[in-house]
Design a protein that fits this description.
Number of domains: 2
CATH architecture of the largest domain: Alpha-Beta Barrel
Strand content: 15-25%
Oligomer: single chain
Structural class: alpha/beta
Number of strands: 23
Strand order of the largest sheet: 1-2-5-6-7-8-9-10
Distance between the termini: 21 Å
Number of helices: 11
Length: 497
């Protein structure tokens, strides 16, 4: 995917009594992070990790250890010296602490303390989830301080779980009060995130932006653009409404792949903000590692019911528990699936009919391997699977070079595969049609129904198969070939069509 790199932020240190300069207007939403995403460590680690991701805005939350030589936890009662040390730590790294929350006050005095803390920290907004009785006071404190109030929504029993209720609660107030739209909790609560953002246009101050694997209370975070929340549709609504505030990434799912998933999410966000709006609306901005060759219904039904769309999934789990293979013959390390050579093929336990498969492979000199499609018998795979060839080097028969449907159909041209370099396949199986793209070049467009005779290709040349390809099963397992040579794969993602 094309990346949009954010320009480095030139940060001017401010003393506790100075006012933050107004942020420059952007051409769309900016990316930030909620420090709760990095709750396993102190706030200083969260700031450093956000910087590694190219993120320059962070919302802090109460209760996180400070770290960095600062004692205590984040709280609106921290002393001036600690506040100044925290601001300096962030500014030294080009980071802006935009906000604080989710936080609530239990009295007029505590609410005032929270806003005094906000002024001392030069915050732009405070994220809250208060009893509605406090809204008139919060409105006045916001006007007096110049710090906006962002009403957050947790799932029920939160009073603001329903976006209609939240919007009704803030309707009597001006722009000093708006929403912190938690798109994940909307999805968990049964509300379509895209439709909810559309309703809330003009009243959104910030977002806790999420993309979930399903719409249930047990849903987990996914890299943006790969879940059921329609991340592209949400960003499209923000752009259409002219929102140029900060969307905060908040990952609530504990995963050892946190930084990798956030990196993918940031890359998708930036590409979605940079792309032509029409492309974004029409589903032409895929997540990193995905193809745009998906059914047009994705675009047509965007925002109506995201859950009905096919959901991209890793082909194999990190522990290979959904794979069938000889123990020890395939291993996963740092996201790379490797065959030692000679240990046998690896197969999905699940069968697939119509699907889009995206993967990268890397091989040494003269390595032979392949990708098996719709295998109905993994013992007699030769006559019951379609093989997309992987080969480093040449072959006397063009139907056996890299990209070929092995022994049946040559690619439109042979592309070079250099030892040690990563190459990317996108393979689409849809009914009788098999399409192959190698390194962004379409090289195979096959119609299985044209292979009507066992052992013979439509051009009259022989092949070694005992079954005509038109009679091949249209549903079966996906496999990767171990042909005796070391071979590596990564970023294997399958999407049912």
């Amino acid at each position: 995917m094309k990346k949009l790199l954010l320009l480095p932020l030139v940060f001017i240190g401010l003393s506790s009594c100075e006012k933050s300069p107004a942020p420059a207007k952007s051409s769309g939403p900016e990316l930030g992070v909620q420090a709760y995403t990095f709750r396993a460590g102190p706030l200083t680690d969260a700031i450093d990790k956000a910087k590694q991701l190219g993120i320059r805005y962070i919302e802090i939350y109460p209760g996180q250890e400070l770290g960095g030589g600062m004692t205590g936890k984040v709280t609106h009662t921290m002393d001036a010296a600690t506040r100044d040390a925290l601001k300096k730590f962030a500014s030294d790294r080009g980071m802006t602490i935009t906000s604080y929350g989710v936080v609530n006050g239990g009295s007029d005095a505590e609410w005032k303390t929270i806003f005094d803390f906000g002024k001392a920290m030069n915050l732009r907004w405070i994220t809250v989830e208060p009893d509605p009785k406090w809204l008139p006071l919060l409105s006045q404190l916001a006007k007096d301080s110049g710090i906006k109030v962002a009403i957050h929504n947790h799932a029920p029993p939160s009073k603001y779980a329903d976006p209609n209720v939240a919007l009704a609660a803030i309707a009597p107030f001006g722009p000093e009060i708006g929403l912190c739209a938690d798109t994940g909790h909307w999805a968990r609560s049964g509300f379509d995130p895209v439709a909810s953002l559309r309703k809330a246009q003009g009243r959104i101050i910030t977002l806790h932006f999420k993309d979930l694997n399903e719409r249930t209370m047990d849903a987990q975070d996914m890299p943006w653009g790969t879940g059921t929340s329609d991340a592209a549709g949400m960003i499209a609504v923000l752009r259409e409404s002219g929102f140029d505030g900060v969307a905060l990434a908040e990952y609530e799912h504990d995963t050892p792949q946190l930084m990798d998933n956030l990196k993918l999410s940031a890359e998708f966000f930036r590409s979605a903000v940079a792309a032509p709006l029409a492309d974004l609306v029409n589903g032409k901005v895929p997540a990193p590692g995905f193809t745009t060759d998906v059914p047009q219904e994705w675009a047509d039904k965007r925002g109506q019911d995201s859950k009905r769309w096919p959901q991209p999934q890793p082909l194999f789990k990190a522990d290979l528990s959904n794979a069938e293979f000889t123990p020890g013959s395939w291993t996963v390390k740092d996201g790379i699936l490797s065959a030692k050579g000679g240990g046998g093929d690896i197969w999905t336990k699940e069968s697939y009919g119509n699907f889009s498969l995206s993967l990268e492979f890397r091989c040494g000199e003269k390595v032979n391997s392949g990708v098996f499609l719709r295998c109905s018998d993994i013992v007699n795979w030769l006559n019951n699977a379609i093989e997309v060839q992987i080969l480093q080097g040449d072959a006397p028969d063009q139907k056996q070079v890299v990209g070929a449907i092995f022994d049946c159909l040559a690619p439109t041209r042979q592309l070079p595969v250099k030892p040690g370099e990563w190459n990317r396949y996108v393979i689409i199986a849809n009914g009788p049609k098999i399409k192959v793209r190698l390194n962004d070049e379409d090289i195979v467009d096959m119609n299985l129904d044209e292979w009507v005779t066992a052992g013979k290709n439509p051009d009259g040349t022989p092949n070694k198969f005992q079954k005509a390809y038109k009679d091949m099963a249209r549903t079966g397992r996906i496999g990767l070939q171990d042909h005796g040579d070391p071979i590596e794969f990564r970023n294997l993602v399958v999407e049912k069509l």
